Amino acid sequence: MLCFSFCWLLALCGCTLANIQIPEEYLAAIRQDRADDQSAGEYNYDKQGDDWTGTCATGSKQSPINLNLDESKIVAIPRLCFYHYDQALQTPLVITNNGHTANMVIPPTRGGQRAGINGGLLPGDFEVQSVHFHWGSKNSKGSEHSIGNRRYDVEMHIVHKNVKYDTMGEATLHPDGLAVLGVMLRSTYILTFQNGLDKIFNQLPKIEQYSSNATITGTLTVGQLLGGIITDQFFTYNGSLTTPDCAEAVTWTVFSAVINYSGRQIAKLWKLKDSREKPLVNNYRKIQEINGRDVYFRAL
Ligand SMILES: [Zn+2]
């Protein structure tokens, strides 16, 4: 029966993945994630979000922003704590081309725990939900935040939900609902192996078509996605989702340390297609006004 629902989900009948057992709870979470994404309506990156409406147009605490050390408050902030970030996740994992990004809903660990974070300026405990990416193209860089007016090649977002809310939909209605970790990737000419990222990027050729999925097996922890960067230095501020409906529900933590990653792996992102069968490139929103918000920097 799992195969049936899996095939339905993946629109892959003839199901070569028939023997892969996906727990029903994980399938339900993937379907809910797709529904949440689609509830915002159709949108694209033709104008880097300038034509998005609602809170995206009227909000005053929008993301991304330029992060400037000179304009940040350098204050004593607790370090960020990661729990179950070193525990292997249930497998298989499913990665999806949802027309806006390559997205992976993150299931519980093999021990049944949810990886999560607290500390920093986070208003509570947050458990991980999903990871996705923003990128540029052959000729342009595509991080969403910039640091000192510098854009990086790729920005990874690890999305977490405040444990006090039951669903993502509910969490987006509250300013303390979500916590997103932003991690910059810098393209390198030399081959750079990244245990965690490689597991995702090696599957990208299988999800070039809109609405396609691929599975990841083997051992992956959420922590491996951080590529061993130092997590003690980061910018943190209150902002929004960077996709419609741009809900102002996010405590952002953007690390100043950058993951160096093979240009050959990053180039795989540029081959993804959106729902119009156009290349899914430059899927980043343009920089938003700070509007007097405090941006904090945690120094070592
Ligand atoms: Zn994002």
Spans where pLDDT lies below 50 across 5 or more residues? 1-8, 11-16
Largest β-sheet summary: 12 strands, mixed
Number of strands: 15
CATH architectural name:
Roll
Overall geometry: globular
Q: Note the gap between the termini.
A: 52 Å
- Enter the CATH topology name: Carbonic Anhydrase II
- What proportion strand? 25-35%
pLDDT averaged over residues: 93
The ordered string of helix (H) and strand (E) elements is: HHHEEEEEEEEEEHEHEEEHE
CATH classification class:
Alpha Beta
CATH superfamily: Alpha carbonic anhydrase
Helical proportion, percent range = 10-25%
Secondary-structure-based class equals: alpha+beta
Tally of distinct domains: 1
Number of helices: 6
Over the alpha carbons, how many angstroms does the gyration radius reach? 18 Å
Query: Compounds present?
Result: zinc ion
